[in-house]
């Protein structure tokens, strides 16, 4: 039996690529153990093309990127059996050699029972990312964590809490968290992250939601509500992008800092939590080195998730126009938030239904007239008034009141007359 991808001489496919093949998946990222990693990587580049660069030349780690596929080459340390004993989980301690798969004792049972078991607990401490990777693998592969594994991950989480200097590079943490969130079982993975103690290590802002009572329409504590929102977002929108998933995860992160008891209503309230949460989400995600553009989108979604869409169609189209850069993520987030509460579930379907109805006609992307045309028409100089005129025109287009350039000119002349009448205090200008 041949490995279904090019393998350089004296290099052996290992780890996740072999595991995925045994699970009936086509591997995307390939790991090779090689007698001479640099020589094997250069041979693969001559055969496949792509970009080759050293990951850690002192340790002999090299990476070849071919399109969307990544090939990593590391030294084969000692005999293959010894190399496997240094890996993280038995499910990853696999090696393909001469048409056969070699693995550690117990791996067949792990595959049959779909369980994730460390090779040795001490191996988690050789690369401190391994506990987080275990949670991510459980979510992405759909494998369970037996009690022994959960206890080992819990001990490692407590070690990282006591030794923050051991926390892996933020870029590596970001990649694992992103892959976890992009899994269909993201909510399950996040629950595991909390259960084994790693939530407080990597996302301490969110750990404050655990056990936080809410009241009102919320029948769940804040953390369970957050998990429910993530679950419902993916139920409504399985292809949701990473930014929408991050927004669902962080949407209530501002609640611990804004929780105040209101004696007039007899319960706790969280006034301003969306604005506070947007700033916390921004700081947390930038610290984890998420791309700035995506972070700003997440912050905008968190800030706007409490906005209430109006019922009237024209008003709803204005509402959506002002938030056009956050669509459709914002609407799905609002719906998921309602589905995760009690007594307001019907609002979720109303929000989605009105959104679909309102956008049967696409929202305008730009005003029908340019800034120069507006200035010439209204006799304006460059300045804020031109921006206000363009904004008013765009809103009129969204409402359906303006559809041609001629109508746009008539509307702006009427708009200007109304502003002049208002400024002079004339009471009888038509409205």
Automatic annotation (TrEMBL):
Keywords: Magnesium, Metal-binding, Nucleotide-binding, Nucleotidyltransferase, RNA-binding, Transferase, tRNA processing, tRNA-binding. Residues 222-342 form the HD domain. SMART domains: HDc. GO terms for molecular function: metal ion binding; nucleotide binding; nucleotidyltransferase activity; tRNA binding. Its cofactor is Mg(2+). GO terms for biological process: tRNA processing. It holds the Pfam family PolyA_pol_RNAbd. InterPro entries: HD/PDEase_dom, HD_domain, HDIG_dom, NT_sf, PolA_pol_head_dom, PolyA_RNA-bd, tRNA_CCA-adding_enzyme. CDD domains: HDc. Belongs to the tRNA nucleotidyltransferase/poly(A) polymerase family. This is Poly(A) polymerase. It comes from Thermus arciformis. The lineage of its organism: Bacteria, Thermotogati, Deinococcota, Deinococci, Thermales.
């Amino acid at each position: 039996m041949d490995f279904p991808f090019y393998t350089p001489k004296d290099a052996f496919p290992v780890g996740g690529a072999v595991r995925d093949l045994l699970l009936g998946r086509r591997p995307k990222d390939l790991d090779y153990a090689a007698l001479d990693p640099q020589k094997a990587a250069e041979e693969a580049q001559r055969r496949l093309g792509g970009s080759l660069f050293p990951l850690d030349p002192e340790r002999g780690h090299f990476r070849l990127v071919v399109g969307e596929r990544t090939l990593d080459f590391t030294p084969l340390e000692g005999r293959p059996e010894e190399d496997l004993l240094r890996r993280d989980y038995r499910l990853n301690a696999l090696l393909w050699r001469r048409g056969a798969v070699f693995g550690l004792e117990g791996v067949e049972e792990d595959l049959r029972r779909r369980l994730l078991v460390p090779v040795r607990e001490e191996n988690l401490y050789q690369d401190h990312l391994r506990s987080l990777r275990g949670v991510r693998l459980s979510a992405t592969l759909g494998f369970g964590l037996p009690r022994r594994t959960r206890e080992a991950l819990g001990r490692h989480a407590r070690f990282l809490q006591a030794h923050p200097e051991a926390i892996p590079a933020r870029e590596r943490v970001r990649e694992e968290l992103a892959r976890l969130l992009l899994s269909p079982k993201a909510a399950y993975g996040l629950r595991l992250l909390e259960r084994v103690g790693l939530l407080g290590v990597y996302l301490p802002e969110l750990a404050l939601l655990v056990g936080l009572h809410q009241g009102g329409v919320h029948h769940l504590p804040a953390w369970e509500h957050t998990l429910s929102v993530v679950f419902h977002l993916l139920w409504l929108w399985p292809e949701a992008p990473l930014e929408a998933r991050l927004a669902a995860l962080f949407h209530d992160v501002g609640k611990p800092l804004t929780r105040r008891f209101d004696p007039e209503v007899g319960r706790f309230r969280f006034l301003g939590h969306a604005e506070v949460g947007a700033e916390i989400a921004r700081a947390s995600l930038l610290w984890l080195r998420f791309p700035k553009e995506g972070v700003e989108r997440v912050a905008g979604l968190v800030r706007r998730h409490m906005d209430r869409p109006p019922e009237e169609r024209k008003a709803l189209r204005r509402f959506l126009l002002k938030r056009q850069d956050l669509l459709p993520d914002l609407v799905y987030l609002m719906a998921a938030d309602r589905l995760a509460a009690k007594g307001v579930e019907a609002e979720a379907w109303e929000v989605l239904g009105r959104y679909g109805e309102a956008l049967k006609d696409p929202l305008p992307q730009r005003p029908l007239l340019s800034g120069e045309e507006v200035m010439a028409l209204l006799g304006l100089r460059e300045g804020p008034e031109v921006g206000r005129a363009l904004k008013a025109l765009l809103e009129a287009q969204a409402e359906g009141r303006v559809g041609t350039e001629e109508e746009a000119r008539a509307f702006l002349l009427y708009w200007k007359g109304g502003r002049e009448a208002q400024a002079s205090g004339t009471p009888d200008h038509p409205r």
